[in-house]
Amino acid sequence: MKLLFVCLGNICRSPSAEAIYRSAFQSEGVTLDSAGTGSWHIGKAPDSRMLATLASHGVDASDLRARQFTAADFVQHDLIIVMDEQNRRDVERLRPAGDHTPVRLLLSYSNEYSGDVIDPYYEAQDGFELCFAQIQSGCSGLWEQIKQ
């Protein structure tokens, strides 16, 4: 199974989801990736505030670098997991004709949260903590579904 996590810039939410899943829930036969719908941060490391939040929870994402989502991602991944409805719309606009790769909201797998994962970029530290909690919950539910 090839999973792709997608957010806007690929510097906060989607690399966090990739790192959290890799750190806590990685299963054999599952490959992970993340991307952003925007191009502003291509090649950059995750946001330093997000890295600090992740590190405070024992998760390392320092090896990740931002990249932009492309139509080829539909072919290369079995499941695309987006952080919010705008990401879903942006991803769907690039869907190749005839492609049936599922695109799901991360929090659709959560038992604690629903809707969109908060974008902490313009938030104070508590926004990064909430983002971490939401992603952790969504990844946990996703892992439970995949391991079945």
UniProtKB/TrEMBL annotation:
<dbReference type="InterPro" id="IPR017867">
    <property type="entry name" value="Tyr_phospatase_low_mol_wt"/>
</dbReference>
<dbReference type="GO" id="GO:0004725">
    <property type="term" value="F:protein tyrosine phosphatase activity"/>
</dbReference>
<keyword id="KW-0904">Protein phosphatase</keyword>
<feature type="active site" description="Nucleophile">
    <location>
        <position position="13"/>
    </location>
</feature>
<feature type="active site" description="Nucleophile">
    <location>
        <position position="7"/>
    </location>
</feature>
<dbReference type="Pfam" id="PF01451">
    <property type="entry name" value="LMWPc"/>
</dbReference>
<protein>
    <recommendedName>
        <fullName>protein-tyrosine-phosphatase</fullName>
        <ecNumber>3.1.3.48</ecNumber>
    </recommendedName>
</protein>
<feature type="active site" description="Proton donor">
    <location>
        <position position="119"/>
    </location>
</feature>
<dbReference type="InterPro" id="IPR023485">
    <property type="entry name" value="Ptyr_pPase"/>
</dbReference>
<comment type="similarity">
    <text>Belongs to the low molecular weight phosphotyrosine protein phosphatase family.</text>
</comment>
<dbReference type="InterPro" id="IPR036196">
    <property type="entry name" value="Ptyr_pPase_sf"/>
</dbReference>
<keyword id="KW-0378">Hydrolase</keyword>
<feature type="domain" description="Phosphotyrosine protein phosphatase I">
    <location>
        <begin position="1"/>
        <end position="145"/>
    </location>
</feature>
<dbReference type="InterPro" id="IPR050438">
    <property type="entry name" value="LMW_PTPase"/>
</dbReference>
